[in-house]
Amino acid sequence: MTSYTKTLVLYQPQNGYCYNSDTHFLYNFIAKNFEKYKNIQGDILDIGSGSGILGLLVARDYQKLNLHQCEIQEPFQLLSQKNAQNNKIEATLYKNNFLEHQFDKTFDYIISNPPFYHSDVIKSDNKNIKIARYNDSMPLEQFIGKISSIIKPKGHLFFCYDVKQLPAITTLLAKNKFNLESLQFLHPNGKKDASLVMVGARKSSKSLLRVIPPIIMFNNDGSFTDEVNKIYKTCNTHSIKCDIL
Fold first, then answer.
1. Residue 84 domain flag
2. 87 in a structural domain
């Protein structure tokens, strides 16, 4: 990781799905997991890259990684490319449905902030938001199964998901020969149950599980906690709305 953090400037749709704090927390979780390794290098794939934020954050701070992105929606494909170019980060973009794409290589690291809202909840009428948010566009079982087929032996997987789905996540990881290595929970405040879980798994690993201290998002007065402010400062992202959609 570099000793400084350059601002990551990200163009976002004026009307459509924009990245949220989940991605910042997932990046922070990935960085915490990377701390125990001396040399982070190889090929990394960001699934459902959207505007590119997650993969670009990782590639910015771990410059020995070769970034690959997969995005199904054309407007976000354009944003991923635009944001990579503007931030001077090289990236290979697969313009396709992740579940259907035939990859010609395997990956050392796979990361994703996938759609995880249950398909039974009331959906937005915006097509771009539907695809980005709801798991009927990428069911959990198919998501983990496809990853298993394209990740290298001992490869690392990092993603975030609805905490209520954790039993299914652990079952599907084990089914696909992933070992659950780390977890971190996000709580809206100190009195509420966790709403999000960050998951770190490794193919065919035997490491014991590490549960990282939780992130508490808000203080009692509604302000961000010091930890959340520190994460935002480290990510150092700047969003610009545009009419690409």
1. yes
2. yes
